[in-house]
Amino acid sequence: MMVRYRGGEGMLAWAFHRISGVAIFAFLVLHVIDIFLVGAAPDVYNTLLTFYATPVGIVMEWLLGAAVLYHGLNGLRIVVMDFWPPLTRYHRQLWYLVWLLFLLIGIPVTTVIFGAFVRSLGL
Amino acid sequence: MSSARYSRSGRVRPQGSGFELAVWYLMRLTGLGLFVLVLSHYLILRVLYDPAEQTASWIAEIRWSSTFWRAFDWLMLTLVLFHAFMGMRVVVSDYISGRARTIALSLLYLLAIALFAMGSMVVFTLDNVVPRA
Fold first, then answer.
1. Among A residues 14-73, those touching chain B with beta carbons less than 8 Å apart
2. Where are the alpha helices (DSSP H) in chain B?
3. pLDDT digits (tens, 9 = 90+) for A23-64
4. Among B129, B4, B66, B42, residue whose Cα is nearest residue A62
5. Interface predicted TM-score of the whole assembly (ipTM), two decimals
6. A window 86-105, beta carbon within 8 A of B
7. B15-125: CATH topology
């Protein structure tokens, strides 16, 4: 992991992209299997659904959303730089833009997800 | 110019016009499609609606009573499996070499085929009415 970048934002952007990608991959395998179970074993799927609704499940889904959002936004940054190479000069600024959009989208979504959870507890 | 060898972005564009270049373009193309498909999927099913209500019978009777959503989900399945497994192929190749790499990549492709078959099967064949579980 330390081979291709000499530190800084570029390396962090790349490392987060890879870590989030592998994490999303792990959930993807689980998710295709759980949806397969909707047809093959609906009661097993429904049992899994009750786990997803626990506090641990909700936090994991929230982290999944964060991973997908970062991976998607940084993916757009990669596409922009790959197809307009002169913009690679601004890779650092583009990465800050990724984080700005991440927070602008992520904070309202976080309040919705955990707001609904707190209401479900009757607090 | 050094930008051919060093990149601040993703994988450096492969030279020539072979299989690797096609995969390189398809990773970016599927990525753009997935940006829309996956984020709207998460936004609709996780944020706007309560996932706890999305039982097997809800999927069969309501969600997949629409051909549009079955097509949406199958397109997303196809794009995401390509993108995820071609991405994992790069990761595996970065950290594993020799015979272990061949074995790891073979297992990866087998898993991809199995998941594509499982996902396609349930999207195409799930009846709109399932026995209540």
1. 17-18, 21-22, 24-25, 28-29, 32-33, 35-40, 42-43, 45-46, 49-50, 52-53, 61, 64-65, 68-69, 72
2. 19-42, 56-61, 67-95, 98-125
3. 999 999 999 999 999 999 999 999 999 999 999 999 999 999
4. B42
5. 0.91
6. 88, 91
7. 3 helical TM bundles of succinate and fumarate reductases (1.20.1300)
